[in-house]
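question for whoever is on the cluster today: can someone run the full assembly for these? four chains, 1088 residues total. i dont have access anymore since they changed the login thing
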Amino acid sequence: MLVLMDTIIHYFYFVMAGFFAILLLKNLFKRERRKGLVYDIVYSYVIMVFILRVIGIK
Amino acid sequence: MYLQTTIIAIIMVATFALASWKLKSPEISMVITAIVGALVGGFGFPSRLLVEGMFTYFDVGMIFLTASIFINIYSETGAMNALVRWIVKQFYDRKWLMLILLGILMIIPGALTGAGSVSIFVVGGLVASVMNYMGFTKRRVAAFIYLFAMLAAVSPPINLWAMLMAAQANMPYVGFNVVLLVPIVIIALFTIIYTGTSKTPERKNKEHILSELPLPPEGMNWFKIITPFAVLLVLILISKFAAFSIPVLGLPLTFVICAFVSAMMDRKRWDVRKWFGVMVKTMDQVFPLLATVISVGALVNIMTATGVRGLLAITFITLPMVLIYITALLFAPFAQGALSYGSAIILGTPIIFLFNSIGLNVTVTAAALSFLFPLGDCLPPSRIVGRLTVETVGYEGSYMSFLKAIAIPWLFMGAIGLLMLIFPNQLDFLVVY
Amino acid sequence: MKNPQYLKILFLVLSGVLGLLAGIEFWELRHYKETVVVSEDFTEKVMLSQYLPSLKNTWGDTPIYVYDSGVPGGSMLVLGGTHPYEPATSLATYVMMENIDVTSGKVYIIPHANMSASTLGMLGNAYIKYYHIETTWGQKKFRVGDRNTNPLDQWPDPFTYVHYPSTQNLAYQDIRNLNRTFPGRPDGTLTERISYAIMELIRNEDIDIFFDFHEASLMYPVVSTYVAHDRSMDISMMAAMMLSATQFPMKSEASPKNLRGLTHREVGDFSNTLAILMETPEAFIDRVVGRMSEELMLEGKDEFLQTAAEKGLVYCDYDIYEGFPDALGNMIIGTPMDYRVGRHLSGTLEALNWMNQFFPDKAISVTFPNYVDVMNNGSGHYLHDPSKADPSRVFQN
Amino acid sequence: MRKVLILVLLSMLLFTTGLFAVVSGDPVVEGQLPFLLTNAGQGPGGKMARLLIWQSGAIEDTDFDYNAEPLKEDPNDLTAREYKMLFVIIGSSAKGLGASGITIDEEIARLNKMIEEAKKLNMFIIAAHIEGKARRGNPGSADEQSIDAIAPYADYLIVMKEGNIDGKFTRIAEEKDIPLTLIDNTIDFMQVIKLMFPAE
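^ ran it for u. tokens below:
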């Protein structure tokens, strides 16, 4: 039972990472603060990190 | 190897300075520095090392995000304003009591989780706005919040630096409670006095403040104000004290649950668009921190690969004892600024072994170091807690002026830590529980 | 001012390329298999999940190689790769597995005790992914893993790790550290379940002596040491004295009672086996070393560490210029891989020898290359060519 | 049978480590029975010595007692039997710091008390440092404090050569005029025991 719950929570974390990737993607294209070009780059690689986790690469 | 590594280190420092100045983004500067370091170090374009490093503090980033989402949703329900209103009403004329209570409030989340940033995320906004209304200057508010965030991180039961050093040195994390709490109380009192005795010329009268504060939304009550925090506290306590009866939740999920509970307290609880909007805004707000923890990992990974990390560590630990004491207040905080909790493992553990080998009490030594490391949370390159404080307080001056604002209590804490480091055997009576 | 959309997309694509390049390397490491040609005394391969079914189809499952002589005698279990970032441990088990000759008793070998942890690099420590060993038939490639279970297999960490059953609090990431989760629990996290399954193996198969191979940083006082549970103290003390006099410097330490979760403590407390942990010196994992490279992993020569040694900060012999002599007259320069592998091999043989003396009813008779052999011929000499071997004796890990 | 096997094995070992003197320095002092074997510094050395004494077969198991920490709880530890000698193995433990490790101040206080009482009882005190440089440390370390608490008050010193590389024990021996026997390896302690208690 605990193992099952652990497994569910484990997958929930991947879903959470995926959700944050979506939030990040939305902010990359439209955001209130730090609108500069430099932060477009920062957003891009942070999104990449979340995606690598979501697809189970790292 | 010394010369070569020193050259790489210098080039990396120069790159970081130049990039920070030109690009105005410490996050990307760290990544650029990492890339330059790898190129100079002969690693080519370090795609694997770069990305691998970015995962080092991935979980920390998740904690930042979820904690902020929780607290922003909580604020959105109006509960935060109601709480501030109540505190001002009750404590307007009892400044000292209020400062003590705010201090304790600040310490709890960090003490339970080991992260000062969590304290700021969870109660920092509340404390800042109460203090603002009470007329304290932004400088004092910033100092108060930053200091208590550090103390929260150091405070038992969870002191991550001590735990990491203990883990690396194969010593049990036992006997730290009193030896941490006594200095914490001293530093906390100093900070409270430092804050409380400052002038508050622009302090408005009570009625004025209450009229400025937005009225709580209809239906707001104590149950709604308390429940989300109560859930947080309960989840954290059962994770610690009933760990074998529940699955591992992790802090991110804990905060998500609390966020959900908060949202359920709202009248328009199923307004998904509203909550989504809050989360998008939260992401915008905490993005610099998230980006910092992601980027600093990449930098640390390259510092390690090129041997720069090793150079820093070997330089510090092979200093004569006297110089270790003299430079501890420099090395330890800067290591924290660059390596975050890695500082404990890289500088802390060798110091533990070194001190042990000359018969000094290692528990006091580890405790002492755990007072010195957090001082670096306001220092570059990462300066995570420092920036978080600036954001939370809404501090408007330059970052340098923020550092000046926190300098006095910062130095006081450093002095206490240093004294503990110098006299561990005289303080070993504190290692009781 | 609004940044053009195409630039944002370009940055995303570039980040994607970076992620892809790195991702390919991560994927390769996770799926790279090491090959082993087991010796003729090999009888069967079983999976750890046989002792705890919930490990089946997880990265926590790992092969156990059994060598049953069919002749009555004691039984031993050897763990390599409890911490995969200490790769001499797995290599030593491979040399053992490829050459072992069991004349009485039964031997169980697990080359990757924490399989999951062997599939990623150590975060923030810029580890090399692989190292290569020269053999008579070409190079053989091995993984260098992490200390802890892969977060892809066990996520999240708690904010503090409460050890079962002692309730001692440990740093959060130690919940993924196999040498902190013993004796484990059947319904715990993946790492706790691996521990529990290993305990079940020990209890069900009535293991008489248990070895856990490790490597330590030189600045760690317990380097070059046996750490023994109370019942195995006599064995490890005699073995250490013997080895120091005849082969290489070896110390012996008692497992402290207050430090929980470690094999030398919990395996001894929660089973009847004689639990022993061994540490070799591995310069690579010292935090003060310079450039991280395969050479450092294989040779262990580092100037920074030399400085530490000269200041008396390391806890074993270390010299990257002249070396130091072992009891046989070899000069040991740095911490070479063969030296480390040889130490584990002879460390095991010597302890077995003393178990046989002290507990004749548990006696096991085995032979495999020892320190002298590996120092003379190199570890690679004892690894066989899989392409020329009987396919039924070739396995992947 | 078992003992014979061990003896054969050990003699082979002694053969390989060289026919040269594994025991050097001052002549071995004749031992007296019964004696109390103990430890200074909370290390495993005492147990190691006990093991080697057993293995040597030179004396009976009943000829000596082993007590890891005499006077810690029972003030009568030294008078429990009419001990002729106090045999102290010096060395701390490297495993486990902090709460799992040693508390050196209390340990030294206990050692001082033990020496004082042993002197009062006219016991012959032997200080042995048999684990080499692993049990030597920087000034102030548990190892050095333990050495300083015992060695200068001993009537006889047995030291492994490697542990005397800085000549500390030679100096103590000369200053206090204590006989000092040196051994090459820890395991040679067994030889010393055999020489101390020659077969009748």
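summary bc i know u wont read the tokens: The first strand of chain D starts at residue 23 and ends at 25. The two ends of chain D are 22 Å apart (CA to CA).
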